[in-house]
């Protein structure tokens, strides 16, 4: 399973830099934004886990979320790194809304994605191997992101840093979407949930 989530999850340092130096928000406000969304995540993560675990479809419990959320996640990734030419207060609202929607769709796709390792195989060694492979790919994707995001933004935008970040994230969003759809089409859920009986 290629780790598609890493290609679209920019590190905190990039987000801080973008919001303060490119988007134009006050650093204290950026801190409030990031903290508030983390607090919301503490609520939405377990809710999403419960929803995914109860999902029933012909594709399984977790795979369909890769299909359903891939495009919304890519869209909100691009919108979050888009700098509208608005008043400061309007941009603050835009930043909070788009970052919240990105975080929400990230939760909706990442939790089912991470849960796939438990339903691909019953073999404990294979499950450990799947998770180990995923963590290795996370490291590689994070390194590639660190090395390429700023050069891509400079190449696409030149002096227009806002355009550069928007275009760079568009490229990453397209790559991430393709990886999600590839995972959806190639992975199979072989372990079915136990049927509960009333005894």
Describe the structure.
With 199 residues, the protein is mainly α. The chain has one domain (44-186). It has helices at residues 4-7, 12-23, 27-53, 63-80, 88-115, 117-120, 124-157, 161-186. It starts with a helix and ends in a 13-residue tail after the last helix. The model has no long low-confidence stretch (mean pLDDT 89).
Structural category is: mainly alpha
Domain count: the total is 1
Low-confidence stretches: none
- Rg over CA atoms: 18 Å
Outline type: globular
Sheet having the most strands: none
Give the number of DSSP strands. Answer: 0
What pattern of helices and strands is seen along the backbone? HHHHHHHH
CA-CA gap between termini: 38 Å
Q: What proportion of the residues form beta strands (DSSP E)? A: under 5%
Mean pLDDT: 89
Helix content: over 70%
Number of helices: 8
What attributes does this structure have?
single chain, 199 residues, 8 helices
Topology of helices and strands:
Layout: H1 4-7, H2 12-23, H3 27-53, H4 63-80, H5 88-115, H6 117-120, H7 124-157, H8 161-186
Task: Give a quick summary of the entry.
The chain has 199 residues and is an all-alpha fold. It has one domain (44-186).
């Amino acid at each position: 399973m290629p780790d598609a989530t890493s290609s679209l999850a920019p590190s905190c340092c990039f987000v801080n830099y973008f919001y303060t130096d490119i988007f134009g928000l006050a650093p204290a406000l950026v801190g409030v934004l990031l903290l508030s969304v983390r607090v919301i995540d503490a609520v939405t993560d377990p809710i999403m886990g419960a929803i995914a675990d109860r999902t029933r479809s012909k594709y399984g419990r977790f795979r369909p979320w890769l299909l359903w959320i891939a495009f919304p996640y890519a869209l909100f990734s691009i919108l979050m790194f888009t700098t509208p030419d608005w008043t400061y207060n309007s941009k603050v609202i835009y930043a909070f809304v788009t970052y919240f929607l990105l975080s929400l769709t990230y939760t909706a796709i990442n939790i089912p994605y991470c849960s796939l390792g438990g339903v691909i195989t019953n073999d404990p060694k294979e499950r450990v191997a799947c998770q180990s492979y995923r963590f290795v790919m996370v490291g590689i994707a994070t390194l590639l992101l660190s090395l390429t995001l700023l050069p891509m933004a400079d190449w696409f935008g030149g002096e227009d840093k806002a355009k550069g970040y928007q275009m760079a994230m568009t490229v990453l969003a397209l790559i991430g979407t393709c990886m999600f759809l590839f995972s959806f089409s190639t992975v199979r859920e072989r372990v079915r949930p136990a049927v509960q009986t009333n005894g």
